[in-house]
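Margin note from the TA: students keep mixing up input and output lines. Inputs are the sequences; the output is the structure of the whole complex. Example:
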Amino acid sequence: MKSADTVTKKRRRITRYTLLKWAGYACAGLAIAALAGILLFVLIRGLPHLSFHFLFGKYSSANPSVSTALVGTLMLVFLALIIGGPIGIMAAVFLTEYAKKGKFVNIIRLAVETLAAIPSIVYGLFGMLVFGVLFGWGHSFMGAGLTLSIMILPVIIRSTEESLLAVPQSYREGAMALGAGRVRTIFRVVLPNAAGGIVSGLILAVGRIISESAALILTLGLVVRNMPTGFMSPGTSLALNVYFFGLVSPEAAAATSVVLVILVVGLNLLAMGLGRLLSKNKGSKKKRPARTIPMLKSGVEK
Amino acid sequence: MSEQPLINVANVNLFYSDFQALKDINLSIAENEITAFIGPSGCGKTTLLKCFNRMTDLVEGCKVNGTITIDGQDVFDKSVDVNLLRKDVGMVFQKPNPFPMSIYDNIAFGPRTHGIRKRKDLDPIVTQSLQRAGIWNEVKNNLFKSALSVSGGQQQRICIARALAVEPKILLMDEPTSALDPISTGVIEELCQELKEQFTIVIVTHNMQQAARISDKTAFFLLGEMLEFGETQKVFSKPENEKCERYITGKFG
Ligand SMILES: Nc1ncnc2c1ncn2[C@@H]1O[C@H](COP(=O)(O)OP(=O)(O)O)[C@@H](O)[C@H]1O
Ligand SMILES: [Mg+2]
């Protein structure tokens, strides 16, 4: 009786497991199909339209190009990183190295999380009202860059915090036991050891900047034809151009998307590669016993 | 031996928040002596050691009362520059913790911290520190290789050299050999004997033979109290405290 019962139970468990497994495969397949579909669609529609002129040539209505958007995107990346990078890194240093655990830190953490959850068009509205109207800059790279620098703070703070926390406490103790103060310990020992993680966080932030469109509509204007004349001039970016071309020329929009997607995917791979490189270094640094390899090695040695 | 002790601990109580980790500790340590702290895990050996260079400052909610004087100066006094205190009172940790930089930069870290920047001033310090730590011959050709690329025993001696490079008066060693093999342990024990000529050493150890071999004085701790303190020979031959005797003879701990 008993054994028959356990057998049916086991059988039921196996069928349930198989079902679950196939459902899992199906969902994973769907996700991959969606990704492949988007990439293929964009490539098929966009690639034929890509040309040297389209990328770097002078913009005209008859012969549109994204040269103004390329320059604009670079300017935005530059501005947002140079402003948001140091602020974000310093905030993370403060949170992990200085602040005592407690209410204050929790409030800051909550604020950072909330910052990450705000819809980007709301950032755009804020940027427009503060930098455009209040400061009287109108549409400008400066206003847009500042808006983006606030938007990327959560990404930078979180990734920096994570990599700072991954630096062994024993390094800090070692430095301080030699008479190094907090600042020296942070700049000479902690930050250099967290650099890889911080840089991959910055790269992810660049991806965010490049992909952003909603916040820029309200802060940067949509000046597609003219090269920017400086940081106070209005302009466009690649993502904004997709929106603009989408209204008038889907082929051009698809071609711009190709550039955009390649950039973002490339950046993600770069960040991932850096992360892996970093963890690899760490493994060899700490001489943590790897799970399987030592057995193999000792076998070979003998 | 009539001069005043180098380290004097008087009525020290230490609390981690509500937990009392040290209870009314009194002891004094003379110059150029090796003092061993022994006792079961969690009895407060590391905690007392960390009071001497105020590494306890780094622990949130840690409160100390009583006085610890080094060279007559109260280390908990507000006027004390804790960075200079730590320059005078070096520390070697239980787990070797060289920085992930070259051996040279590891040794030069301390001197650089205290304002020695020029290569021509640093070179002799690095050489001498590595020699004192008995590891110069093993690493002299690899000074610019990562300090993490050498063995655990060598890493620990690099850490000792790193601590010596700032010319401390006192060297605190928290179970410096507990993570090492017997050969490296032997090397470091011999090293302690040599270093004793120039430094005052306080060493925490779990290894009774080690304490007996290398130390001049031994202090036995249990649950935050110091139950026995005296000449090592005497502590190991006829301890006054009955619990200490049982610990030393391996009956508990
Ligand atoms: N940072 C800390 N916070 C709270 N309790 C601690 C801390 N460090 C040590 N303790 C406690 O203090 C006691 C003494 O610890 P420790 O000095 O490390 O002992 P030992 O070095 O003799 O093994 C232990 O009970 C330990 O749990
Ligand atoms: Mg300990």
